[in-house]
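wait is this the right file?? whatever heres the structure
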């Protein structure tokens, strides 16, 4: 039996309720530092139309690319054409009363 290569590039999804700042920033930061062909994405269950400008400002001040970064609906990553993810990481503000996606 062959085992998958543990060092092969990985696919990660940061999932939250609105895909507004935390998950978008996690996507951008992960992609900026992954370097081995790994790729991160982010999505929300109820995505907002526009991400807060402050999130982009913080990333850009640290020279982290934001081109193409936008809130996305989880449905973009589901269905028969969907690629499998190696990791799905949820982000939420429990202290703000947000419910983490499951």
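ok assuming it is, sequence goes like this
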């Amino acid at each position: 039996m062959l085992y998958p290569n543990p060092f092969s590039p990985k696919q990660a999804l940061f999932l939250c309720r609105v895909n507004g700042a935390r998950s978008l920033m996690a996507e951008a930061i992960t992609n900026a530092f992954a370097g081995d062909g790994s790729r991160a994405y982010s999505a929300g269950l109820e995505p907002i139309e526009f991400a807060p400008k402050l999130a982009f400002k913080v990333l850009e001040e640290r020279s982290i690319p934001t081109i193409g970064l936008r809130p996305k609906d989880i449905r973009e990553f589901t269905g028969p054409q969907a690629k499998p993810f190696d990791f799905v990481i949820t982000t939420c503000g429990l202290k703000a009363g947000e419910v983490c996606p499951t």
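Residues 28-96 form one domain. so i think its the right one actually
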